[in-house]
Amino acid sequence: MKNRHFNLITEPWIKVLDENYQELTVSMEEVLKNARHYRQLAGEMRSQDLVILRLLLAVLLSVYQRVNADGEPYEGLTIDDAWQVEVDSDLDFEDLIEEMQETWQTLYEGGEFSQAVFDYLKAYEDRFDFFGEHAFYQVSREFYDAHVPAKNQVAKGTGTVAIKQINRNISESGNSIAVFTPRTNTFKNQLSIDELVRWVLTYQNYTGVTDKTKVNRADKFSVSSGWLYNLYPVYAQGTNLFETLLLNLTLFENEQDKYSQPKPVWEWTTESYLKERIDETVPDNLSELYTLWSRMLHIEWEERNPTIFTAGLPKVSNVNVFLEPMTTWRQDKEGYKPRVKRLDNLGTAMWRNFGDYVGTDDEENRVPGIVWWLNFLTEEGLLAQEANIDLASAVMISDGKGSSQMPAAESVDDFTIRADVLFDPDPLAARRWPRRIEEVIELTKRVGGTLYYFAKEVAELRDSNGSGSFANRISAEFYDQLNEPFLGWLASLRNDQDRDEKILEWKKALHSLVMQTARKLVQESSPTEMRGKDSTNIFTLYNATQLKIRKQLS
Predict the structure, then answer these.
(1) d(Cα 435, Cα 525) in Å, to the nearest integer?
(2) Which of 151, 235, 242, 513 is the most exposed place for a label (fewest CB within 10 A)?
(3) Does domain 433-553 correspond to CATH entry 1.20.1640.10?
(4) Are 337 and 319 spatial neighbours (Cβ–Cβ below 8 Å)?
């Protein structure tokens, strides 16, 4: 395949929805030139769209962390033909931040990316070819053989990963057959080039640990399962793809006090990049983090059929890596770690963990970097107070098995809230909308807990051994019913409203919904539940539940 080319800059491989909701496949160049005319990315999975969003952001960061909207280097930075930066000794970082802020504003108001983006892509054109000497996201056969055990070299034919395993719509290994897949056996290992590019990118971020080949290193190490796999992602959605890219274009981070040159994977020599990964070096710039490899890949081609050789790279620590803006955080004895969504909380909607996404009075609560960035834009007047903030999540969830971590499910969710509500500047902390919303959610959970125990007691009247399972099902159905009305209530909030009145509005809606569910259990009750036992029956349980809920909501 030496003479074959597929350059990601000019060849169509990114799926989008246009203004008429038609699906198109376009190149990187097209998507960045026409971003405002596309509604959103539209790949095979939302998790895949997030990977591609971060790739596009890595390109934009590599440009606009170096030059302004006019393509001029920021004051204090000197840039050569390869876009490498020399930082002046007298660089004033605060001035640099102001310049970057102006760049963001100019782009946002102009509605398009400047010529500098395409000049940058042209400079690294050869590194975006999926074939050739510097094949995108791959290494040469010689390089691969030199950095894996002899028994795993290409000629041995070991250390491969099947297309059906890389394709996360299937996620099938030789030992784990995916029954419900979108493809028959005949086509499970077939992909077009554009599909293969999308799934190779996705695989680097959501890998799992079923493959056994590792890169050579003197000591043992834990293999990375993919950077995004170990996050609970959160990002901003705009009304079109251009807005989405701009809202997530975090040109600097909170508490940053020095300049870090952007250095995505395509700006490295392969040898230097591998050394960084083997040494488990945590990236110091977002472009590198957004293009982080979990595997060293080499692809052999026979006609148009690829054989993918893969070698595991060491896991990069994510403890206190606040450079990562797209995650919620939890704290333990080691420090702050990204939260991870598991199968046992698959059905938990984003809004039920509202406090993970916003600033509260809890000093230990650390908001995602993207939320800090949106707050900064609002405070600086770059986003209007009345603007809607749409926070979204796309999570690939593993099977929870340490020996495989195969994808088991995908969870996608979002909620919309006004900027003046999310970033309520009210000086009286007790009145701030984020705090009041969190209190409302905690109250909602307590009411949900009361319903759970009512359902559990009803099941016990039947002498059921599965009372917990029955109560869990009723609880899950109840929260599913709550999602739409709560999200509607959240989106309706304004900063100039009577807060108590709006909260009462939700309490009334909540009371109606929870009692509706409770009454349904009564209506569907059996004679056994009506008779009850020990002076307790479904009617006495219902009355007690009704009284408790009324007190909770008073």
Answers:
(1) 40
(2) 151
(3) no
(4) yes
- State the Cα–Cα distance between residues 172 and 180, nearest whole angstrom: 10
409 DSSP assignment: E
pLDDT band for 528, please (50, 70, 90 cuts): confident
528 is written with which tokens? 């056994």
| Distance separating the N- and C-terminal Cα atoms of the chain | 72
3-state helix, strand, coil in the chain (%, to 5): 45, 15, 40
Residue type, 95: D
How many Å apart are CA 107 and CA 9, to the nearest integer?
A: 21
pLDDT, position 182: 54
Sheet containing strand 305-312, strands side by side: 160-161, 305-312, 295-302
Q: Does residue 229 contact residue 191 with C-beta atoms inside 8 Å?
A: no
Every domain of the chain and the residues it spans: 14-312, 433-553
pLDDT for 533 equals 79
Give the C-alpha distances (Å, rounded to integers) separating 436 from 261, 321, 340, 371, 449.
41, 30, 26, 18, 20
Alpha carbon 288 to chain centroid, angstroms: 17
Category of 226 on φ-ψ map: left (φ > 0), alpha (ψ -120 to 50) or beta: left
Partners of 390 in the beta sheet? Answer: 237, 416
In the block, residue with structure tokens 């893969």: 310
* Nearby residues of 554 by Cβ (< 8 Å), 6 or more positions away: none
| Six token digits for residue 162 | 């099947």
Distance CA 342, CA 344 (A): 5
Other Cβ atoms closer than 10 A to 318? 19
Q: In the predicted model, what is the mean pLDDT of residues 276-281?
A: 97
> Is the pTM value of this prediction over 0.90?
yes
Phi, psi for 450 (deg, rounded to 5): -65, -45
User: H helices of 281-418, where?
Assistant: 286-290, 369-379
For residue 548, give both structure tokens. 């408790």
Cβ contact 283:289 at 8 Å: yes
Residue 262 gets which letter from DSSP?
Answer: -
Locate 3 and state its tokens: 């003479």
Q: What is the DSSP letter of 238?
A: -
Measured CA distances, 450 to 130, 470, 523, 545 (Å): 56, 14, 19, 7
Q: 109-118, pLDDT tens digit by residue?
A: 999 999 999 9
Instruction: Using the structure block, give the residue that is written with the tokens 């406090």.
Output: 355
Q: How confident is the model at residue 402 (pLDDT cuts 50, 70, 90)?
A: confident
Phi, psi of 110 (to 5 degrees): -80, -25
Percentage of residues in the chain with pLDDT exceeding 70? 94
H, E, C per residue of 121-140: HHHCHHHHECCCCCCCCCCC
Residue tagged 């739409």 (tokens):
484
Instruction: Give the three-class secondary structure for 187.
Output: helix
Phi and psi based region of residue 320 (left: phi greater than 0; alpha: psi -120 to 50; beta: remaining): left
